[in-house]
Amino acid sequence: MAAITPDGRHVYVTNFGSSSVSVIDTTTRSVIATIGVTSGPWGVTVAPDGLRAYVAGFGSDTVAVIDTTTNRVAASVPWLDKPLGLTVSPDGSRLYVASQGGNRVDVISTATNTLITSVPVGTGPRNVAVTPDGTQLYVTEEGANAVTVINTATLTVIATLPGFLFPRAVTPSPDGQRVYVTGYGGNRLDVIDTATHTVVHTVTGLSIPFGVAVSHDGLLAYVACNGDDSVSTIDLVRNEIIDTAPGFHAPSWLVVTPDDLDVYVVNNGNETVRVLPTPPGAYPDVGPLSGGTAVNIIGEGLGDTTAVRFGCQPAASFTVLNDQEVLAVSPRLVTDVEIDATPGQLTTRTVGRFYYLPDSVLAGISPTSGPLSGGGTLTVTGRGLITTTSVRFGTVAVTPSSVLDDKVTVTVPPTHTAGPVPVTVVTRSNSYGHSTFTYVGPPGITSVTPGGRRSEPRHVRRRDRHVPSAHPHHPVTHRRRTTPATASG
Predict the structure, then answer these.
(1) How far apart are CA 296 and CA 216, in angstroms?
(2) In Å, how far are 45, 182, 415, 462 from 234, measured between CA atoms?
(3) pTM flag (> 0.85)
(4) Does residue 465 surpass a pLDDT of 90?
(5) Triad 156, 77, 9: Cα angle to 5°
(6) Helix, strand, coil % over all residues of the chain, rounded to 5
(7) Which residue from 89, 228, 314, 334 has the fewest beta carbons nearer than 10 Å?
(8) Coil, helix or strand for 101?
(9) What gap in Å lies between CA 175 and CA 217, rounded to an integer?
(10) From CA 339, how far away is CA 432, in angstroms rounded?
(11) Contact 375, 393 (CB under 8 A)
(12) Are 338 and 332 in contact (CB under 8 A)?
């Protein structure tokens, strides 16, 4: 496997056969260190502060802790069981490890390098990924053909998603709304909604997909395909394959540099690492007619760009980030256009294409009310909704479970207070709020009206009552209840 430091300067790659870890300098693109570790190193991850790298020792049932400032093993954590994939919590306090031999996820304290607890999961856990907010852990289980979701606060399984075929790699989107899983046996990439724990999209046409990595802007995913020795690039706005790079050798794992310009791909077939540049183009390539979409233009020789045009209109604004990337904002237009850039005094050239969609309009919602517990499905209708990223209920943002140009469905979130809240559809450029959803509390008692039999005052003697005898053949007798006399002195 491979992992990159937060500053993007170094990539750590495990060498299973030689029981070592190679350290690659991304500036010189050369190996600067080789670190000996215990037998069978597999998974590797880097702490959020970049000071530690953790390596799963499949052959030794341990995790090696590497000091990245010295590139030496600083500690070893025992008592694991055939560990494979691992990841660090966003706050750096915990290490989650898939112990395949024990069908469990081991939780390690990074402060003490000790095993805290283990969470039982399905058969054959292989890889793990934690959402950016640190609340959910996703585990791929090849033996069970499932993905398990663990609540990291309670360390309990809260969902198990079936229907996968040898799920292997797993990684979240930067905003935490989606999780991407490669189906090694299903030739597909499944997209899981982290709010509803359901598969909301499937990208097919991938030949034995292995690893997956997502760009830091959340627009592209890269999938290493063993079947045809290629790496596919997927547009995550449209969930479509937009590029396939051939010429790899059993590619397995990949990492994206923080600037999203390079992808480091590990070739298991010939034990090399190849650097793949981001495919040239415009990302995202869709937006509303009203403009305002921030577009990353990727290419070569863009450092001296003096103008950017969307068709015949100049960009609303643009910023040259480096020689390979320009950030431009789309102007208001009425048709699909080519994007042209003028690098310095050179001839203007086309660097991508941008597709204009009708402005988003929210026509209505159904239903318009529901219980405080939420949980129901709400449908938003309108037009130009295809770039919807979330639906807000007041200040609570929810990821849609289905997005079409004229309809968006979403699960209603719970709340504590009854009453109306505005419903806002958030697209990639704008927010549109024209509907209201009313949370209805449970019925309560507001008043009591006297009714039924009126009770008598305690001092009033009750009437005589007929009491049947204990023996079925005895006649019924009349008994008078008496009240003892009292005297006052």
Answers:
(1) 12
(2) 24, 13, 36, 87
(3) no
(4) no
(5) 95
(6) 0, 55, 45
(7) 334
(8) helix
(9) 9
(10) 27
(11) no
(12) no
**What's the one-letter identity of residue 152?**
T
Closest C-alpha to 147, from 105, 209, 205? 105
**In which region does residue 308 sit, left (phi positive, over 0), alpha (psi from -120 to 50) or beta (all else)?**
beta
Q: How far apart are CA 420 and CA 45, in angstroms?
A: 45
The closest of 451, 439, 431 to 389, measured between CA atoms, is 431
pLDDT tens string 307-333:
999 988 999 999 999 999 999 999 987
How many CA atoms lie less than 13 Å away from 189 in the CB half-sphere?
Answer: 32
Distance CA 452, CA 64 (A): 77
Phi, psi of 100 (to 5 degrees): -65, -35
Residue that is written with structure tokens 């058969």 in the block: 123
Cβ count near 313 (within 10 Å): 14
Write the DSSP assignment of 269-286 as a string of letters: TTTEEEEEEPPSEEES-E
Backbone angle region of 213, left / alpha / beta, with phi > 0 → left and psi within -120 to 50 → alpha: beta
Cα–Cα distance, 1 to 212 (Å, whole number): 11
Give the residue carrying structure tokens 């100049």: 314
201, two tokens? 């999209």
Tell me, what amino acid is at 92?
G
Instruction: Give residue 109's Cα distance to chain centre.
Output: 23
Per DSSP, the three-state class of 417 is: coil
Residue 140's nearest CA partner among 176, 177, 92, 189 is 189
Give residue 476's Cα distance to chain centre.
79
Per residue in 60-113, pLDDT (tens digit) is: 999 999 999 999 999 999 999 999 999 999 999 999 999 999 999 999 999 999
Question: Can you tell me the distance from the alpha carbon of 388 to that of 432, in angstroms, rounded to the nearest whole number?
Answer: 10
Q: Provide the pLDDT confidence category of residue 473 given band limits of 50, 70 and 90.
A: very low
Element (H, E) at 239: none
